[in-house]
Amino acid sequence: MSAIQALSQRGNPTDLYSRFSSFTAARDLMAADLYPFFLPLEGGEGPTVRRDGRTLIMCGSNNYLGLTGHPEVLAAARSALDRYGSSRTGSRFLNGNTDLHQELEAELADYLGKPAALVMSTGYQTNLGVLGTVLTPRDYVVLDRSAHASLLDGCRLSGAKVRWFPHNDPEGLRRTLERIPDEAGRLVVVDGVYSMEGDVCDLPAVVKMCSAYGARLLLDDAHGLGVLAEGRGTAAHFGLTDEVDLITVTFSKSLASLGGAVAGSEEAIHYLRHHARSLMFSASTTPTNAAAALAALRLLRARPELATAVQANAAYVRRGLAEAGVRSTPSSTPIVSLPTPGALETLTTWQRLLHDGVYVNPVLPPAAEPRLRTSYMASHTLDQLDRVVEACAAQDALLERPGNEGRSVSVA
Ligand SMILES: Cc1ncc(COP(=O)(O)O)c(C=O)c1O
Q: Which residue windows are transmembrane per the record (predicted)?
């Protein structure tokens, strides 16, 4: 077994602690100078970052609108830090709530076109809290094969029966829904924009299936918010906000902060507020983070051209890559995935790009098939994007040519 495959192996010891000593894959990669994780970056995060005193073009961030260093976002965060202190040291359910959290909820609900919203500490905790509350072991939940890990974890926590349908395949969804017993409760769970592929959910077809089979629908719009429909996200993009029951979002991407939220009907949000365990038993997102997210939301609302700019930058890169003969998966979002023939090529190409001054994210099974995930910001300059295309075009493993189609890897 290669060190790369072994990264996802946990061993099967009866002594729980022996799994720590038998896990050698990460150390093997470190020894081979191919370890790509936990890279310490220095200073701020924008279109460029600093590493070991060098400047790298950042193409591995979810800072789509480039707002993490925006003066208005920073000023709001500083002012909240002064007014509210560094932490609320408790859950929103008890001592951790502030007027700022509630202001953010009201503005998010309005922006997303839903009657109410509930702010939680991260996007991950939002999905865990919502799915762990809405579903019970009697229910069936049907997930897209590429749904984010936090969605699956929330479903597992609930004990509901988990079923999958092939990625973005409405007919596959129909076949899966058809097999669910008539008397069972059912929820369909999709991402608005898939985080690895960068493709947009076929929401009109999903909505049609949900309505035909009496299923409720949850949409995780972590990567759609700030990007599609001038920022309002995937449901607004298709004009289907009313047909989606629950929309979850994160603040850690376009909103340049940390936290998450769910938007839906007054009744649903009221229920979640009093039952979601990841909300009730975990400290609230800091006022500093809430203030940064609120400032970013207000900027997005006032300047929808930010969303247009990131889309234009991604389209520019996609065109450049295609002209240079670099393979990329179809996408109409700021996420541009570059498949590699195998995991070893993912790591060696990641390393060469880093050496050439371009930061990208390596993706390895079981997260997804081997690839480099690149993503773009509204604040990248065309000159920076030209340099990225040039660096990618110099990588053999990324080029459109025989032998680079990739060995098929089955993804858990
Ligand atoms: C689709 C999706 N949902 C949820 C999350 C979790 O968000 P957070 O980083 O706020 O925990 C992510 C982040 O990677 C994501 O990509």
A: none
